[in-house]
Amino acid sequence: MKCPFCHETENRVIDSRLSKDSNMIRRRRECERCTRRFTTYERVEEMMPLVVKKDGRREAYDRIKIVNGLKRACEKRPVSINTIETIADRIERTLQERGEKEIPSSVIGEALMRELHDTDPVAYVRFASVYRSFKDIGEFMVELEELIKERKGLPLAKTAEPGRRRE
Fold it and tell me: 129-132 — which CB contacts under 8 Å span 24+ positions?
């Protein structure tokens, strides 16, 4: 590992610890040349599926896109970055557990909708408005009305799952 301060490759590990969720190792290192200390993280390289877009294109899964989309939806909302990271972790874990080489982008979008629905209703509606590409205020209102009914405990329209497009 190259020292970030002097770029020397010779260093020694002072301390190694497993992260709270046991999915990575944190290592404290000391550079042999400049004696400064730095931290590295080691995790298993996980093979994520290719994402199949609506138009059929395939692209590599990109966690940064997930996190940025969540950040935009949660902007100025009481949702911490830790919560956003946890949601991204759950999405990734779900994708890995499926064990598929390719996954439709809609599966990821629906999973994000469910997560946001349970986390923050305003962030959910923001994300839904972009993800669902609402064409007019009427479509937006239908989504809001369903959310309001659900919060009041009233029966929902034809769908049983939050975030599903109503026909």
Answer: 130/72, 130/73, 132/165
Give the number of residues written for the chain.
167
The domain tally of the chain equals 2
Residue 51 CA to residue 100 CA, distance in Å, equals 10
Which alpha helices (H) appear in 9-104, and where do they start and end? 63-73, 81-98
Same domain for 80 and 23: no
Lookup: tokens for 73: 């939806």
Residues 33 and 100 in one domain: no
Q: Using one digit for the tens of pLDDT, what is the confidence trace for 10-51? A: 999 999 999 877 878 999 999 999 999 999 988 877 788 999
Sign of CA dihedral 117, 121, 122, 125: positive
Distance CA 91, CA 85 (A): 10
Instruction: Please give the model's pTM, rounded to 2 decimal places.
Output: 0.61
CA distance 116 to 69: 11
Residue span of the structural domain in which 100 resides:
50-152
Strand partners, 103: 51
